[in-house]
Each structure stands twice: as C-alpha cells, then as structure tokens.
Design goal:
This protein is mainly β. The chain is built from three helices and 18 strands. Helix content is about 15%, strand content about 40%.
Length: about 280
C-alpha cells in the first residue's frame, strides 16, 4: 500500500518520458518525475521516496526530504495566506496547507509556527495544524523517571515551558529548572523527573539525582581545564553566578563539586575551586 506523507521503499517498474514509475508489493504505481530520477538505475531496483500530492491532487513521489512527515511536529514558516487558510514551507515544491479551523491564532506571512502534519481523513490530503495540543495524548505514558526523551519546545506558561515529548506526549519543565534561553520549536534532549498518576509528565533538562552528578562533574572539570585550573565559584557562591557559568542550579553544582572533591579531582578554596595537581 502506498503511504501518503511518509517514506516508502518501492520497486522501479517502468521508464517513461515523464519519469520512472515505482510500485509497491500490491502493484500500486506512482510517478517519480525526471528531475528526481537517479542518474543510474535499473528496472527492479528499490528506491526510497517520499509520497505527497502534487498541484493536481495526484499522488507523486520525490527524493527530496521534507522538514516533517505525517504524524510529526515541526516548526515551519508561513509563506502565504488566502481566504481559506495559510501555507507553510515544508521543504517541497508544493507547500503545506493549514486550514483556518486548524489555526490556533490567525497565521501571518513570514512568521514561524509549531505545527502538526496529518492526513485529513475526509479528503485524504496532507495538511497541518497549529492546534498542537489536540494531537498529544497522555492517557498512556510508558515512561519512567530518569528516561532520556526527545523534546520540542511548545509554548511557555507561568509555571515554565510546555514540551512535546517523543512526538507523543505533553510535558512541563518548571521555570526554576531552566538555565538556558528557550524559543518555540527548539529541539533538545531532556529527562523524565516524574510521571504523575494523571499522566502529566514533569521534565528536566539536566540529569538529576545520583545519575546527574557524573555528567555535571565532567562539565565542571572541562570548564576548569579551559580556565587554567581555577574558577572563582564554590558552594558559597551566588546561584545566579553559577547559572551564568555552568547553566546549573546551585544544588546540582554543589553535588557535582562534592563528588569531584571526594574523588580528589579538585580543591575547594575560600574564593573558588581549583584542579588538583
């Protein structure tokens, strides 16, 4: 079966003037236009292509790689608006349509938006929606504390930053645990702090607990080496100064230098920390 909005590995079955035809195991065929045809090929070769609809609403193949595929989130630029909706650039010749009903706020040309790409069940057309929360589900969260996860920054709130977790769930990083500038659409790694009974996910951008000491300690060692072996910060320093240098909370910093001190990697002095000889 040809799968719209995603990558398909298909067999080359025909070579025609307009391009080559590819087929799935059920015999469904699709055209790969000449401009995307590889320089060398043979009938029977397998080729990985992306399938979408052309301007005539016909399914077509391309070897271009879009910025997003069906059932995924992406941060895309609005290129134009019309009476029926907006269009965003997703890396293909035909831009992606965002209906008015799927716009959380009226889109404006030139602005960037976090959207979800989907196949409209009624029309079998690819479209996008900026109402991203309705495509997230926390009813079944198969994650545990300390799990590393892929995050996309969704939107800020008074509590912190809402994050899309593994392209499936909604989670939150609390404001007092954010030590870097975040903007909508940022993609980054994070860690699960807790999955609550109601499915809500508490996140952190730093390794935490006993698993957090080692990587934070390595970061401090690297910074010490780059600074000539001494940094004028210690466990008595102002939390903001620690945050500016290491992007760590004071609590995480104290745990890290404590582990380094016990391992005899550093000396904690009155005015800072120093590498041991």
């Amino acid at each position: 079966m040809l799968k719209l909005g995603t990558y398909n590995t298909l067999e080359i079955v025909k070579d025609r003037d307009q391009g080559i035809y590819l087929s799935d195991e059920e015999g469904n065929e699709v055209l790969l236009p000449n401009k995307y045809v590889p320089e060398e090929f043979e009938i029977g070769d397998q080729l990985k292509v992306f399938l979408y609809l052309d301007n005539a609403e016909r399914i077509i193949a391309t070897t271009l790689e879009p910025f997003a595929t069906a059932n995924t989130f992406a941060y895309l630029k609005c290129t134009s608006t019309s009476e029926i909706g907006a269009f965003v650039d997703w890396g293909l010749e035909k831009e992606l349509f965002v209906p008015f009903r799927e716009q959380a706020f009226k889109m404006k040309k030139g602005n960037w938006y976090l959207v979800y790409v989907y196949v409209d069940e009624e029309t079998n057309r690819l479209a996008a929606s900026s109402k991203t929360n309705r495509f997230l589900d926390n009813s079944l969260v198969l994650l545990s504390s300390y799990d590393e996860v892929d995050l996309i920054a969704s939107h800020p709130s008074p509590q912190g930053w809402n994050m899309i977790v593994n392209q499936k769930h909604l989670g939150l990083v609390y404001a007092d645990e954010i030590f870097q500038k975040l903007t909508v659409g940022d993609q980054l790694k994070g860690f699960v702090k807790k999955v609550r009974p109601d499915g809500k996910i508490d996140l952190t951008l730093q390794r935490h607990g006993f698993r957090g000491i080692e990587p934070n300690a390595q970061q401090i060692l690297d910074e010490l080496k780059a600074s000539g072996g001494f940094i004028d910060l210690n466990d008595k320093s102002d939390p903001e100064d620690i945050k500016d240098v290491f992007q760590l909370s004071k609590k995480s910093f104290k745990k890290a230098i404590g582990s380094l001190y016990k391992a005899r990697k550093i000396i904690i002095e009155k005015d800072g920390i120093r590498l041991s000889e």
